[in-house]
Recover the amino acids of this structure.
């Protein structure tokens, strides 16, 4: 299958900072709550047309938009792919201090953008999928995007059990519940290195672990929406942004990759969607101030 891999790898490594907001410690009682069977968010995946980032290394923005879409569906029952990957990619680059001459961004930059500015809708800011990347953001887009800002974000250790606990909402407060009242399941915003042998997964979606001698091609940001067991091995369900014709299928959802437990990750993040206080005049003043400074 033909696919220009290098043009789509835009996740830059992030060096953990001790000042990061982190999930709580995974204690022994919490560890017992992690089920052995599969856990997945596939039923909350929102339909999207194409779901293909094209030849732009904008995967960080797509990762963020998918996470917001799924959480919005869980909270409000709105299964619509609405959030603009282009807006989140552009603003994540701003907070990650990526120079214009370099493509890509960091998930930490995405977290800052979601916290400080929120997320715009695709109908406001159209996502570009062809080089050279161009996105037009109007002042009013910043103002309205703030309605969809997150309350907080948390960095998750990249060990398998820590990621499982975070997806189950055991080590942080997601700020929402599932429709049945249980703790909200949380999509994991991750970034990971991609090696030469990644192309072996284009057909069935099963990504092999890197082996000695495999060349590093770059980094990719993509959403983890659950896991399952097969032949005694665990796999992360990776909701990707390379279209539905690349990768595997699980429960009628196409375009997925399956990363084996123990695959190396650059970083992993979860979002908290606690309700904000009603926006008064001071809140609106902050919006305009943030909107003004976002232009520089």
């Amino acid at each position: 299958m033909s696919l220009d891999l290098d043009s789509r790898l835009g996740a830059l490594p992030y060096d953990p900072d001790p000042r990061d907001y982190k999930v709580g410690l995974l204690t022994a009682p919490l560890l017992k709550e992690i089920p052995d069977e599969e856990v997945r968010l596939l039923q909350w995946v929102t339909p999207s047309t194409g779901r293909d980032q094209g030849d732009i290394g904008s995967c960080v923005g797509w990762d963020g938009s998918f996470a917001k879409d799924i959480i919005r569906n869980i909270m409000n029952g709105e299964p619509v792919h609405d959030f603009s990957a282009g807006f989140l990619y552009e603003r994540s680059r701003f907070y990650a201090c990526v120079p214009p001459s370099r493509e890509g961004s960091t998930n930490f930059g995405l977290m800052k953008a979601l916290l400080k500015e929120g997320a715009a809708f695709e109908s406001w800011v159209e996502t570009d999928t062809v080089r050279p990347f161009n996105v037009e953001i109007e002042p009013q887009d910043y103002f309205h995007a703030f309605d969809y800002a997150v309350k907080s974000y948390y960095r998750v250790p990249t060990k398998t059990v820590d990621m499982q606990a975070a997806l189950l909402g055991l080590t942080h407060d997601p700020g929402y519940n599932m429709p049945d009242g249980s703790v909200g399941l949380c999509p994991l915003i991750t970034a990971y290195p991609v090696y030469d042998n990644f192309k072996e997964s284009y057909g069935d979606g099963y990504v092999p672990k890197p082996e000695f001698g495999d060349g590093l091609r770059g980094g990719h940001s993509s959403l983890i929406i659950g896991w399952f067991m097969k032949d005694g091995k665990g796999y992360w369900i990776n909701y990707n942004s390379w279209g539905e014709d690349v990768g595997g299928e699980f429960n009628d959802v196409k375009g997925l990759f399956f990363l084996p437990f123990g695959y190396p990750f650059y970083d992993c993040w979860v979002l908290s969607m606690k309700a904000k206080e009603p926006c008064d005049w001071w809140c609106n003043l902050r919006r305009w101030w943030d909107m003004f400074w976002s232009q520089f």
